Every structure is written in C-alpha cells, then in structure tokens.
C-alpha cells in the first residue's frame, strides 16, 4: 500500500514538474517564431480531438475511424456559421455550440448501434460515417469554399481578443488543459471506472450495475464532444476553411494512432504524442516523414505494446523502480507488522467498515426464487423446469457434474440470458426480463467462472470499479467533485480498502492485477462484487484455481460474510468438501434438472446424487457439520 | 429533400452497368472473405495492398521509364502492361505472405481480434504512407490492359475491361471452389475457419495455411488494385472508396460467405448504378452516399437483429 508520505511526494513531484513545464512553455511562447506557434496550435487541436479517441479507444475499447471527419465537420460548420457572405454571420460562441452539437449527434447516431454491435462492426460503421461526411460536407461548396472576401475572424472571448497567433495558442492550450483536467476527473470517478470496466468486459460491468450500452453511448458522446471542440478551436485559426485533404478517412487512422501509441493510462501522453505528430513532420521535413508514416509507426508500435501503449511501458518501469525503492511494499513479509493478532484486528475493523458500507439486508423471507426455468440451445435442453429458492442470510450451494447447466442457471439468475420459460423473483420483484444492471441495482452481484478482472488496472482501481452503484451523483457532480459525489467516493474508497484487507490483497493495492497470481486475481474479482453493495452474492466457482489452503481460507471468509454481515450467498463450486462443510442448503443439478435439495447430510446420503456426481463410494466425513 | 421518382427507362442500362461494376468489388470482397475465414479479422491490409498495387502498376507501366527488356514502348513505362501486371501481383503476394506470417505466427496468433484488426489498419496506413512517399500520387487513369472495346446490352454500354474483370472473378471463384472442396489445402483452410484450436491439435499447419491464404488473397487485391487504375484512377481517397465498397458487401454477406458477399457486390453495384443514373431522380453525390450508407447501416442492424444473440458479446482490444 502506498504510504501517505509517498502520495505527498508524488504530488510534490507533479506540482514541480507542472511548474517547470509551465515556465518552459511561457519562455517558448514569447520567443517562438510565428510559424512554430501556428504549428504548435494545430498540435493542440489535434490533441483535443484525440482526447476524445482516448475515451473511445482506450477506455471503452471501441475503434472509431471517423474522428478526422467529425473534427472537420465542426470546423466547416463553425466556420460557415461565423462567415459573412454565404454564411450566417453568427458570433463565435453560438456557432461553436451549434457545430459541437451537430458533431455530438452524428457520433451518437453510431453509438446507438452498440446495443447490438461491437468491435469490427463499429469500425465499419464509423468508417461509413467518415465516408458519408466526406461525400456530404466535404463536397458542399458553401462549406469548404475559400472566398477571400468573406473570411473568418478570430473571436474575442471574455474581453480578450484572440487575433494574434500567441493569444490563439494560449486559447487552444487552455481548451486542451481543461479537457485533460475534465478527463482526469472523469477517470477518477465512478463513470470513468464504469466505462473502463464496460470496455474491458461487458459481462463484468453489467454484473456490478454498469449498463455497457449506456457506457458506450457516453463514450461516443465524449468522442464527438472532443472532436467538436477541436473543430471549433480550429475553425477561426484559418481565415478561410482549411483543405479537407487533412481530414480524410486515411487521416482518421492517424488520429487513431495517437491514443493507441500513447496508451489508455496517460492523458498527458496523448497530448504529447499529438504534439509530436503535428510538429515532427514539419521539423523533419527533409526526411520526408509524413503524418501518415508517423501514424503507421504509431499504430504498429501501439498494437505491439498492448492497450497500455508507450506510456504504459514508462509507467510500469517507474512503478517497478518505486517498488524497489519503497520498503513498505514488503511489509507483509515482516512478521512484526503482519502478526496474526494484528491481522485479526484489522479484519474486525474491515468488517465493521463493510457493515457500514453495505445496504441494509433483510432478515426474513426468500431473496431469490427461480420457478420452472427452462432454456434450450438449439436441440440441447440446457435447463428443464429448474426451481430454486435462496433464503435470506444463508449460504446456498449449487453443485453438479460438468455440463449440468450451473453456469447457464447463474447467467439466467443474473440476467445475462433470458429463459425460454419460467420466472425469476429477486427480493420480491419479478426480474425475469430485467437486464443484469437493473438486477445489480436491486442488490444482486456475481463473479464468473473465468476471472474477469482488468489486468491493466491496479487492485485498487479494479475494486473501486465495483462501487459504481454505491456512489451517488451525476457526471457533473462527479467531475466537479461536489460534496455528495465526493463523500460517496470517500466512503467507497474506505470500503475498498476494507475489502482488500479482508481478501488479503491490501498489500497489493497499487499493484497491476496482471502481476498477481491467479488466486489473488480471483479474490480481487470477489472484492469488486462486494463493492457493488450486494444483498445477494452469486459466486461462480470461487475456489477454482486456488490451492486447498487458499480455498479453505476463502470459504471461511464467505462464511464470515454471511454470518457477520448477513450477506446471502449462492455459489457454484466443484470443491464438494468445502460446499458440504459450509453451505446451509445445497442444490444438485444434473443434466439441466434439480435432482436433490437439502442439507449436506441429506445430499451426501441421496442415492441419485451419489450415482451421478459424488460416486457410490463417497463417505461423508466426520467434519461435515451436523446442523448443515 | 431526396428525389422520389422512378424512371423505368433507365432501369435496364443501370442494371447492366451495376452488374458490370460489381466485378471489381467482387475481387476485393473475395480477398476479404478469404482472410476473414482464416483469421476472423477484417483484412484492412488489402486496402493498402490495392493502393500500393495501383501506384506500383502506374510506376511500372505508365511512368516514363527507361527502355527495358520487357518494355516494347519506350518512354511509356518501365515494362509493358502484362509483365507489369504480373510483377504487381507477385509483389502483392509477397506482401500478403509477410503479413500472413506475422499474424499467424506464435506471437500474434492468439491476439484478440480487435488487436489484429488495428494491426491490419497499421499496415494499411503504412503501405499508403510508403507508397505516397516513394511514388507521387497521380490523378491519371491508366488505359485498360484489355483494350478499349465496348459492348451494348439492354441499352447500357459496358467496356471490355468490365467484362474481363467479371470473367476473371468467375474464374477465381471456380478455382477457389475447386481448391476449397476438392483438395487437402481446402480442407485445411476450412478446418482453420471452423476452429483454430481444434485445427492446431489435429496437426493443421496453421502458419503455412494462414500465410498461404494471405498471399493468395493479397495477390487478388493487388490484381484488383491494378485493374482499378483504369476506372477510378490513382487518387488514394477514390481507391479507398472502392475498397470500402468491397468491405461493405462483405459485411452485408456476414463476412464469411463468398456467395453472400458476391450477391452483395451485385446489389451494391446495381444500387450505386441506379443512384448514379438517376433511376430514382437526380440526387447529389452526397445524398447518394447518405442513401447507400443508410442502407448499409440498416442492413447490418437488420442482419444482427435476425441473428440470435444469447449473451452480450465481448471484445477486447
């Protein structure tokens, strides 16, 4: 865990770095020739546009090939609205608002298809949008005409006239800086984390209450917003509209290369790479390095380095250096610090924090009732009239041979699949047709058979991603850090630390999940589910991949969550001994049918269960609890 | 407002022109479908190969070069059109082979589809960048290798270039049908298309099959790139538009079906021809594009609406 002194030192370093950068920029600003000021301003506008792509490609993991076209659309519309003659002669701000609105709407049009399409289909749709923009806006002579008698004048904003290249550079820099701050605040909020989770894994996002579709729409809206902003900053930069040659589909690939090369972890890296892409072809003119060539190199390097890009490599290197230099990381190995009694004490404190964090649990009744659930895949009847009841504050097990339909049943209970027949009641509500995120809002969370954590995020970031539903406030509140959202963030962070403590990953809080062993990754996933504030937790083979000691400890914790926090748990597990030892009620599923239900002793004695799953020679052990 | 008229007298000629135009899209579509079948990714690299091929073909056969052994027309190119075409196709196959070896190799073979798609986009951009740096783009149209002869059919005029392109497309499809259905190579390709992991376990040489498919399909793309210089010229945006059209029909055909892709080629060619000829009244280029793209959006969504989706699809970059 990073110490508070470490955080303060990092902050100090950042402030000092920012101050040096600002000073250098100021010196350069008053000494740079006009040509370079202009070139750098185009770099800033490219940076603004590609910040939108960072959200779309880096966070939401959708590739857009329309960003150049959208940026150009805003340029031409804003310019046309401002121009006299054939134009509308509007003031800058209304013209800019109009252009940004049109671009956001165009981007949203594509986003609507993300309900049913993703990946390569979205690439093609965005490419189609780009070509449509080329054929409509770029071929519209009124929009792209370069009439020297009706030029676009640079505006005055808040009493400051932006006529000079220097003033305009500062204006563009301010817009870029505001955009970066906005994105940094967004990324640190539940919306940013939800977006990244939806981008990495739609199922995992839906399970903790994030609607992947809404998240993607949001990402497209932001991509459109930043393309629009870049366009309206660019429009008055030129007296007449710039040539559309720089905004063709092939240029959209160059735009794409920037966040791919920079990586999704660093907002600053995107701005830096965008500046390099603008300045380098001019600075290295003699070497014939075109933006297209840079884009190709960027895309190749970006794909080879993975989603974290070049900035990820640098951050990972810094991270490893910090780990070597920070003694606190190995505290777990210090017997004095991590003595068993201190650990027990921390567990008690963590449970208290979690008790405070989780929503109120009911004391009586059934939290989940599935009735006559059936589903078939083609000719295969996966589930036939399955009925199952999960009483409140109980630990319920679901066992059965491979292919019995356990995970399919979980998918139906969770809402990832719709049953052909039957109903699912959750806390008294009929949720048979409800999507997973609505079920999560009612208090249902789940983990998956295969680990679904974001390997490129830290343990802390993964855990906090689960708290989406538990933090109040809208996007504005989250980004502005208004009290309600800030308090929610604080509470969730506290709970996340507590969960990390309970799951024995507190020492790895700042570690990338990629670097953890499989068992720890599974625990992080369970922790993320806990952070979503469940009243009913579905665990799909939580002990898979864990050794016997780890599995025993995990079951002890699950039991503790059920007993101390009143959490209801339904789990699928092949580790039969642990299920028989710990579960209050056990269902056995075989070939899509429930063949037995009861206590551990009843299940162990059931002849059909012994025949199809446990084996005829199975002997219930002494340690099987008598009351179970 | 969109024009809502119907000029029946234009249907015949527009139909003929549309079907004739479909041949060029078809060649690129076959390349895209072939590589999609073995990699489940869109081969954007084919767009780059087509652009490169168009420029290279121009440089070989039309740019003023020195008199060469195979160049009977001094000053009109470095080599004659037929040797030039062969060289272009060979170069395309070589590029495809190199690309295929990288994406089917051990390092990248298991990459997520979207990563491979972005990698393919990188090649597209790289090939265009290299081409534009080395060979200056020209707006010239190169005379067809098949001559200038034209035919009249149902009131429409089609060129020998279009007829030859269609015939070549049919020949390629016949060859592919034979190879895929009657040879061990075809069995291997179909096995990889069905299940890569299972193919690996039963001993299908994945890299060999994958690289071979990429080489063959890249040769086809290069061939299409060379032929397109006679109809749309050599401007990169125009060449990419042709590629996008081919991509469109592949999407319409579900990306893995040759027959549906070719049907899509005909539908798109005819639709484009109807709009250009003004069968539904005169519409600007922009409006024509909006109509075509709206139809594309609609069809893709309809196809996906009809396709049952049991769970949310997961893609990772």
Characterise the protein shown here.
The complex is a heterodimer of chains A (628) and B (317). Chain A is α/β, with parallel strands linked by helices and 628 residues long. In chain A, 57% of the residues lie in helices and 11% in strands. A six-stranded mixed sheet of chain A has the order 8-9-10-5-11-12, with helices on both faces. In chain A, 51% of the residues are buried. Chain B has a domain at 26-235. Chain B contains eleven helices and two strands. Chain B has a two-stranded antiparallel ribbon. Mean pLDDT of chain B is 81; it is low at 308-317. Chains A and B meet through helix 5, helix 9, helix 11 and helix 13 of A and helix 4, helix 9 and helix 11 of B.
Number of helices of chain B: 11
Structural class of chain B: mainly alpha
Portion of residues within helices of chain A: 55-70%
Radius of gyration of chain B: 20 Å
Side-by-side strand order of the widest sheet of chain B: 1-2
Mean pLDDT of chain A: 88
**Beta-strand residue fraction of chain A:** 5-15%
> Main beta sheet of chain A: strand number and arrangement?
6 strands, mixed
The gross shape of chain A turns out to be elongated
List unreliable stretches of 5+ residues of chain A: 327-331, 622-628
Q: Indicate the mean pLDDT of chain B.
A: 81
Strand content of chain B: under 5%
End-to-end gap of chain A: 39 Å
Residue runs with pLDDT of under 50 for 5 or more positions of chain B: 308-317
**Alpha carbon gyration radius of chain A:** 28 Å
Structural shape of chain B: globular
Oligomer: heterodimer
In short, what is this structure?
Chain A is an alpha/beta fold. Chain A has helices at residues 4-31, 34-59, 67-82, 92-111, 120-136, 141-144, 165-187, 190-200, 202-207, 212-234, 249-262, 267-283, 291-305, 309-325, 340-357, 406-414, 436-442, 459-465, 475-480, 483-502, 518-531, 548-565, 576-582, 600-605, 607-614, and strands spanning 156-157, 160-161, 366-377, 380-391, 395-399, 421-426, 429-430, 444-446, 536-540, 568-572, 585-590, 593-598.
């Amino acid at each position: 865990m990073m110490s508070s002194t470490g955080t303060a030192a990092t902050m100090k370093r950042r402030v000092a770095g920012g101050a040096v950068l600002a000073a250098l920029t100021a010196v350069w600003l008053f000494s740079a020739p006009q040509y370079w000021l202009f070139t750098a301003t185009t770099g800033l506008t490219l940076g603004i546009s590609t910040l939108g792509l960072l959200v779309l490609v880096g966070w939401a993991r959708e590739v857009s090939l329309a960003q150049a076209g959208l940026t150009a659309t805003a340029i031409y519309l804003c310019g046309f609205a401002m121009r006299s003659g054939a134009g509308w002669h509007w003031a800058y701000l209304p013209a800019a608002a109009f252009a940004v609105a049109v671009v956001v709407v165009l981007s949203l049009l594509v986003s609507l298809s993300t309900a049913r399409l993703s990946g390569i289909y979205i690439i093609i749709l965005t490419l189609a949008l780009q070509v449509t923009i080329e054929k409509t806006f770029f071929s519209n002579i009124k929009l792209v005409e370069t009439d020297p008698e009706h030029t676009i004048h640079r505006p005055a904003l808040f009493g400051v006239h932006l006529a000079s290249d220097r003033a305009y550079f500062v204006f563009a820099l301010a817009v870029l800086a505001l955009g970066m701050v906005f994105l940094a605040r967004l990324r640190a909020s539940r919306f940013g984390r939800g977006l990244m989770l939806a981008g990495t894994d739609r199922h995992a996002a839906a399970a903790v209450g994030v609607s992947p579709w809404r998240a993607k729409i949001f990402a497209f809206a932001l991509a459109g917003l930043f393309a629009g902003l870049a366009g309206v900053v660019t429009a008055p930069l030129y007296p007449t509209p710039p040539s559309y040659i720089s905004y063709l589909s092939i240029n959209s690939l160059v735009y794409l290369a920037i966040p791919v090369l920079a990586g999704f972890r660093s907002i600053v890296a995107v701005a830096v790479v965008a500046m390099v892409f603008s300045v380098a072809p001019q600075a290295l003119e003699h070497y014939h390095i075109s933006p297209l060539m840079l884009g190709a190199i960027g895309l190749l390097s970006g794909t080879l380095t993975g989603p974290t890009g070049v900035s990820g490599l640098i951050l990972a290197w810094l991270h490893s250096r910090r780990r070597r230099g920070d003694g606190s990381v190995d505290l777990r190995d210090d017997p004095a610090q991590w003595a068993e009694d201190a650990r027990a004490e921390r567990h008690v404190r963590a449970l208290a924090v979690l008790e405070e964090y989780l929503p109120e649990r009911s004391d009586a009744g059934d939290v989940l009732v599935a009735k006559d659930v059936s589903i078939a895949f083609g000719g295969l009847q996966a589930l036939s009239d399955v009925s199952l009841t999960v009483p409140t504050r109980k630990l319920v097990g679901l066992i059965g041979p491979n292919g019995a339909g356990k995970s399919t049943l979980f998918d139906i209970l969770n809402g990832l699949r719709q049953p052909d027949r039957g109903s699912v009641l959750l806390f008294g509500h009929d949720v048979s047709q409800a999507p997973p995120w609505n079920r999560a809002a009612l208090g249902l969370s789940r983990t998956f058979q295969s680990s679904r954590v974001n390997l490129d995020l830290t343990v802390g970031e993964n855990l906090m991603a689960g708290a989406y539903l538990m933090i109040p406030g809208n996007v504005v509140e989250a980004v502005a850090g208004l009290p309600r959202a800030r308090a929610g963030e604080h509470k969730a962070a506290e709970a996340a630390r507590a969960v990390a403590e309970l799951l024995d990953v507190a020492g790895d809080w700042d570690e990338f999940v990629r670097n953890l062993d499989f068992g720890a990754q599974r625990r992080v996933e369970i922790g993320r589910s806990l952070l979503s504030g469940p009243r009913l937790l579905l665990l799909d083979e939580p002990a898979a991949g864990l050794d016997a000691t780890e599995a025993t400890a995990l079951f002890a914790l699950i039991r503790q969550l059920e007993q101390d926090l009143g959490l209801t748990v339904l789990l699928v597990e092949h580790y039969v001994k642990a299920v028989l030892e710990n579960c209050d009620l056990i269902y056995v599923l075989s070939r899509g049918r429930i063949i037995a239900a009861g206590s551990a002793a009843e299940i162990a004695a059931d002849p059909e269960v012994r025949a199809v799953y446990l084996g005829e020679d199975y002997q219930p052990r002494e340690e099987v609890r008598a009351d179970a | 407002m969109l024009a809502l008229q119907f000029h029946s007298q234009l249907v015949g000629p527009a139909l003929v022109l549309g079907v004739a135009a479909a041949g060029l899209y078809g060649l690129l579509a076959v390349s895209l479908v072939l590589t999609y079948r073995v990699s489940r990714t869109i081969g954007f690299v084919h767009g780059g190969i087509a652009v490169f091929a168009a420029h290279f073909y121009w440089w070989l056969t039309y740019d003023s070069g020195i008199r060469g052994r195979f160049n009977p027309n001094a000053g009109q190119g470095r080599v004659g059109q037929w040797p030039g075409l062969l060289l272009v196709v060979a170069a395309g196959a070589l590029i495809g082979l190199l690309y295929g070896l990288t994406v089917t190799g051990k390092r990248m073979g298991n990459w997520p589809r979207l990563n491979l798609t972005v990698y393919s986009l990188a090649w597209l951009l790289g090939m265009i960048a290299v081409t534009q740096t080395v060979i200056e783009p020209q707006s010239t149209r190169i005379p067809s290798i098949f001559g200038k002869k034209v035919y009249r059919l149902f009131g429409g005029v089609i060129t020998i270039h279009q007829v030859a392109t269609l015939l070549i497309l049919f020949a390629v499809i016949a060859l592919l049908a034979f190879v895929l259905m009657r040879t061990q190579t075809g069995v291997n390709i179909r096995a990889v298309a069905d299940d890569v992991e299972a193919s690996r376990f039963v001993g299908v040489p994945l890299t060999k099959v994958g690289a071979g498919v990429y080489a063959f399909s890249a040769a086809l793309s290069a061939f299409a790139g060379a032929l397109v210089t006679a109809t749309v010229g050599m401007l990169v945006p125009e060449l990419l538009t042709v590629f996008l059209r081919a991509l469109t029909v592949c999407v319409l055909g579900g990306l893995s079906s040759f027959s549906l892709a070719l049907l899509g080629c005909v539908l798109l060619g005819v639709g484009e021809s109807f709009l250009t000829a003004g069968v539904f009244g005169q519409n600007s280029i922009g409006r024509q594009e909006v109509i075509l793209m709206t139809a594309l959006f609609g069809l893709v969504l309809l196809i996906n609406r009809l396709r049952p989706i049991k769970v949310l699809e997961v893609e990772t970059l």
